[in-house]
Specification:
Length: 72
């Protein structure tokens, strides 16, 4: 399964820069960039902190999708 997110969309809705959001949750701007691009999977704790900081339901901020070609 692959993790997807709407972090950038929720961040922009709140008029936050990557730097501002990073400071709110105690990570670097590079971490926020990596999560937004799908190159880094946040811990459960960080995902919950991001959802709380963005006032977004976690299931709207992050979701899992099956990778194409895989059957379960």
């Amino acid at each position: 399964m692959e993790l997807h997110n709407h972090l950038r969309e929720f961040r922009l809705l709140r008029d936050l820069t990557q730097e501002a959001l990073a400071k709110m949750v105690g990570v670097t701007r590079q971490t926020i960039i990596a999560i937004e691009k799908g190159g880094y999977t946040p811990s459960v704790k960080l995902a919950l902190e991001l959802a709380h900081s963005l006032e977004a339901p976690i299931e709207e901020l992050f979701w899992l999708d099956k990778k194409e070609g895989l059957e379960t």
